[in-house]
Design goal:
mainly alpha
């Protein structure tokens, strides 16, 4: 579990920083502008925040209250992002469903750790 939190925390940190600083380096946002870039940057801020929380948990992994709180928040984060992507896909607002699958996978793994914690 600690390794999962560390790896996904580092991934969230990289994606969060990329989205916050320059979302257009992500292929889906190359032609984006205005409100979509602002929304991408807001997602970057959320991902960056989750990453900082993950790294804090890894540094104090024995703290059960902190770890359990993180798992719950991480599960909610990935579930709601996956749900948002699914809604956009069904509404034909995006063709990019892959990121929804990645977030769903992280949500399922996190739920497993949450249940078995």
């Amino acid at each position: 579990m600690k390794l999962f939190i560390l790896i996904t925390g580092v991934l969230e940190l990289m994606v969060g920083l990329a989205m916050l600083i320059n979302p257009k380096i992500i292929p889906s946002y190359k032609k984006a502008g205005g409100a979509l870039i602002t929304t991408a940057r807001m997602y970057g801020g959320a991902a960056f925040s989750i990453a900082i929380f993950a790294l804090l948990v890894v540094s104090d992994f024995e703290n059960q209250i902190l770890t359990q709180s993180f798992l719950l928040i991480y599960f909610v984060f990935h579930t709601t992002v996956a749900f948002a992507v699914l809604i956009s896909f069904i509404s034909k607002q995006t063709r990019e469903i892959n990121i929804g699958f990645v977030h769903s996978l992280f949500a399922v793994i996190t739920l497993y750790f949450l249940i078995t914690f």
